Amino acid sequence: MRRAALLAVLVAFCSSCGDDTPTSPSSTPTNATERFDDIINVRESKFFPFSVGSSGTVTINLASLSPVNRPGAVNATMEIGWGKAIKDDSGTVIGCDLARVTQTTPALAAQLSDTLAPASDYCANIADVGGLRESVNFSMRISHP
Amino acid sequence: MTRDSGFVPRHARDALRLSKGGTRDWSRWLVAAVGAAVILAGCGSDNTPTTPSNPSGTVKENWSSVVAPGGASTRSFTVNSAGNIVVTLTAGPTVGLGVGLPRTSGGGCRLGVSVNASAATTPQISTQADAGQYCVQVFDLGTLTDPIGFALTIEHQ
User: Fold this and answer.
1) What torsion do the CA atoms of A115, A38, B111, A59 make, to the nearest 10 degrees?
2) Distance CA B62, CA B90 (A)
3) What is the pLDDT of residues A95-109, one digit of tens each?
4) Which of A65, B35, B56, B77 is 20 to 30 Å from A93 at the Cα level?
């Protein structure tokens, strides 16, 4: 009887130690975030090349449009997008072959999200589609694998 | 002289039997107690105290400073997870108030959201934001003639 009671107590103790159950390892890749800050003029476009090391999700955020010579923000509609980087024979990126675009005003959360595959050289693009009345500073964030 | 005859009185034999039985009982309980202690020691991670967390995960920062005529004052902060950034100008003159990304060099703030704000108890800016580095900026709208103080609160994840 005593042995049975002792065994029952030990089992009860052991059963309370169950929180150390191993979890499945996460395979979510870590994204890098890059900033693309520049000035864009009326009816102009600019691109920013970036390399994707593995397939995954890219997010693009037009975070800011601001006047060049005074404080404040400009709430103009711009076109942002991503595509494949176009290279010349020497490997220099000379253009951006757009695959997806969207029109948006600045915000602090990503406006564009897509899965990029395969790993390659891509580009983020910003273009004035008639919303600008003056040259502005812009800030974009590109988060990619 | 006395002689050891090997005779042990009955009450002494009973006492000896009880004593031996008691020793065996104590040793069993000692083994059980040590075993239980070892097992319980392995359960310690469940009881590790953790830092109390804010259930909503919201961080509130207070900032007071001075804005000069034609100038701007900027403060940076970090959003740890996606959520709302809420800014309330609680004291000061009517100014430009904005939230954006810190400049990558040279200081300052590239605004994504901007309003003309007067001091109030209700937020002047509430905007969704991804995790990352941000800044809030107070700037003169061209109305100030002297440096003047202001106070605001920033709430974010």
Assistant:
1) 0
2) 10
3) 999 999 999 999 999
4) A65
Shortest CA gap B1–chain A (Å): 49
Among A139, A142, A143, A144, which would you mutate to test the B interface (most chain B Cβ atoms within 10 Å of its Cβ)?
A139
Q: Which residues pair with B111 in a beta bridge?
A: B100
State pTM to two decimals: 0.73
Q: Which residue of A has its CA nearest to B135?
A: A108
B39 in helix, strand or coil? helix
CA terminus-to-terminus distance, chain B? 95
Size of chain A, expressed as the number of residues it contains:
145
Residues 6+ apart with CB under 8 A from B86: B123, B125, B126, B154, B155, B156
Question: Closest-CA residue in chain B for A15?
Answer: B43
- Measured in angstroms, the CA of B134 and the nearest CA of chain A are apart by 9
Between B82 and B27, where is the model more confident?
Answer: B82
Tell me, what's the pLDDT at B57? 87
Dihedral sign from CA coordinates of B89, B86, A102, A143: positive
Are B102 and B134 in contact by the 8 Å Cβ rule? The answer is yes
Reported residue count of chain B is: 157
Q: Is B7 helix (H, G, I), strand (E, B) or coil?
A: coil
Residues of B within 8 A of A17 (CB-CB) are 39, 42-43, 46
Instruction: Say yes or no for a CB contact (<8 Å) between A64 and B72.
Output: no
Buried b (16+ CB within 10 A) or exposed e, A87-125: eeeeeebeebebeebeebbbbbbbbbeeebeeeeebbbb
